[in-house]
Sequence to fold (251 residues):
Amino acid sequence: MSGHSKWKTIQHKKGAADAKRGKIFSKLSKELTIAARAGGGDPNMNASLRNLIIKAKESNMPADNVERAIKKGTGELEGGQLDEVTYEGFASGGVALVIKVLTDNKNRAASEIRHIFTRYGSNLAVQGAVARNFKRKGQILVETATVEEEKLMNIVLDAGAEDMQQEDGVFDIVTEPAGFQAVVDALEKAGIKTVSSEITLIPDNYVTITDKSTVSNVLKFIETLEDNDDVQNVYSNVDIDDKILKELEQK
Fold:
C-alpha cells in the first residue's frame, strides 16, 4: 500500500482517535486557533480553517467553541499563544513515530512526552532522524459502503488525486498537499461524505509487527500519546497483522 498511511486506517478501525469527545474538542480548538493565526479568520480565504470548521461540525463541536477558538487565533480574544513542537522517536519493534504538539507550555509538554516514552520503554530521537522518512501528503478516507469505487475514483483522479486504494472498509485517497483542497472540494460538490480529510505525514516504508505483546505495547503507547492534551497528531510507520489486531479488539 505504497504512499498510504496504514496507521490511519488502523486508527479508523479502532476508533482510538475519537474515543473521547472532550479531547476532540480541545484538540480541534487548538488547531482552529493555529489555522486562524496563520491564515486569518475568514474560512472563505483560509482553506485550512474551512476544513477544520467542517471537521468541528462533523464532531458536533458547539459553534460558540469554534468561534472562540478562531477569535483567539485572530487576536480578538486572549489566550491564543500556542507553540508548535515536533517530537520524534522509536517504539518497540523499531516502529518510528513523529508527534505533533500544540502547547501553551513547552517545558510541560516536553516533560510529559519524555515521561510517556520512558514509561513504554521507547526512545526519543534527534530532530530529523525520523521525519526524513515521512512525506507530507493530503489524505482522505471515505467509507466503502457510501459510494461505488469506480465513481469515486473518477471524481478524485479528475480532481488531481495521486492514488486511491481500498483497505479495511475505507477508500484511502492520497494527494499532493497543493492538490488536496481541489479533491476535497470535488467530493463535497459530489455529496460524498468523508471519514477524515487532512494534510498528514505518510512513511516511505512500513514496519510490520506480528508479535502480540509488541503490538499491544505499541498501541497502548500511541494511544497514551494521543490522550495527552498537547498532542495533536501521532504519525507512525506501523503495520499490524490483521489477525492480531482483531484478537486484541475482541478483548
Observations:
- Strands lie at 83-90, 96-103, 123-125, 134-143, 163-167, 170-175, 196-203, 207-209, 231-236, 238-240.
- Residues 31 and 52 are 8 Å apart (CA to CA).
- The chain has three domains: 7-13+83-132+206-249, 21-74, 133-203.
- The chain has nine helices and ten strands.
